[in-house]
Structure formats: structure tokens, C-alpha cells
Amino acid sequence: MAVKKEKTIEETFAEMEELIKKLESGESSLEESFQYYETGMKLVKSCNDKIDKVEKKIIVLEDNGEKSEL
Questions:
Q1: Which pLDDT score is estimated for 25?
Q2: DSSP category for residue 38
Q3: Cα 67 from chain centroid?
Q4: Please, are residues 47 and 68 in contact by the beta-carbon 8 Å criterion?
């Protein structure tokens, strides 16, 4: 079974940009536009989750750094 590689934040942003271009083109049907929107919202949530994880790691590192200086 192949392991699915998680996209980087940069890859996710690139995918969102492509979806935005498709939506802005005006060439999509209403159903396609809804699918693009739904996919985009999932990508936004994914980015938010990744950013939250990074922020938590930074806080832990900062906390550990302060404790080691004492």
C-alpha cells in the first residue's frame, strides 16, 4: 500500500491559486464552481491546521529555550 505524501503549505497555496483562476474565469458551470469552492475550503482548513501545528511547535521551542536559560 502506497503512503500518501502530505502536501506542503506551498503546494496547497499553488493548488488554491489554480482553483481561484478557474472560478474567476467564469467558464465553469455552477456545479463545477461549487466543487472548486468546496475543494478550496478544504485546502484552507488544511493550511490552517498546518500553520497551527507550526505555531504550537514554535511555542514549545520558545518555552524550552526559556527554561534552559534559567
A1: 93
A2: H
A3: 32
A4: no
